Amino acid sequence: MARLASTLEDRPLPAADDVEVLAVLPRASDLVVVATDDSGNPLGVAWCHFHDPPLVLDEHGEPLPELVLAVTESARGEGVGSALIEAIASETAERSSTLTLNVHLRNPSVRLYMRSGFWVAGKGRGIFGVAMSRSLRDQ
Ligand SMILES: CC(C)(COP(=O)(O)OP(=O)(O)OC[C@H]1O[C@@H](n2cnc3c(N)ncnc32)[C@H](O)[C@@H]1OP(=O)(O)O)[C@@H](O)C(=O)NCCC(=O)NCCS
Fold first, then answer.
1. Which of 16, 39, 59, 68 counts the highest number of beta carbons within 10 A?
2. The model's pTM
3. Residue 65 domain-assigned?
């Protein structure tokens, strides 16, 4: 799933030991939400991560948590990604005022993020990276 979350759909999956994939892997302390079908098979996963270096800092200079999200190809377009975002936002609201993410500017998921309350917060990682933020104050 970290490999899926680190690429665009029309590009080959990066290797499991690619630096970008390793950088977003969830740690033991990260909040992870898994969506499953009725038989318990995983459909998608989202986690809340503290990337090093951080993407966006809060007003005190502290790193803000970052969303990482991927849904298996056969389950896409049915609201799983949207539901995972809401689950992570709801759980993260107890620990942070803001949820952030990094997205390639050509990634169609930008539409999903805008619809889910994220706005463009500045430059993200790499040449094409965009940082987005969502307030969690009204969760
Ligand atoms: C992004 C992703 C998690 C969305 O999951 P989903 O279950 O399909 O999401 P939903 O059904 O709730 O919403 C559909 C939205 O996904 C986005 N989307 C559609 N095709 C997509 C694609 N090929 N790649 C990425 N996002 C896509 C669009 O914003 C779409 O909204 P639209 O109906 O306005 O076009 C899923 O497409 C995915 O895993 N893509 C590959 C990995 C990825 O791009 N992760 C995000 C990295 S920042």
1. 68
2. 0.91
3. yes
